[in-house]
Amino acid sequence: MFKLMSFRGDARGDAAFWPLAERSHDGAGRIYFLFGRLAAVGRRLAAELAKELAARRAMRSLASLDDRMLRDIGLERGQIDHAVRQGRQGARRASDAGSDLLRWS
Prior knowledge:
By secondary structure, this protein is mainly α. It has four helices and no strands. Helix 1 crosses helix 3 and helix 3 packs across helix 4. The relative contact order is 0.05.
């Protein structure tokens, strides 16, 4: 029912005890590994592309608002890009840093 395992090596060495030690050294295993890595890179690229397209869509919709409406939500026209990518708090921090530089210079 249960197989008794020991730390003693046998003809296969440590691979009998450690399943991760059994690596396929044939060409097919490497091909599957490379296809897996390529698929992961493709998924990551697709996610980044979707994120960029969503950011550009948000920037276009914010840019279509007039200055009064932007002020109502706490933004200025020059902060749209930063607000979309970093959030409104990030845009506010950036403008605070700019006003601090103007005040102290």
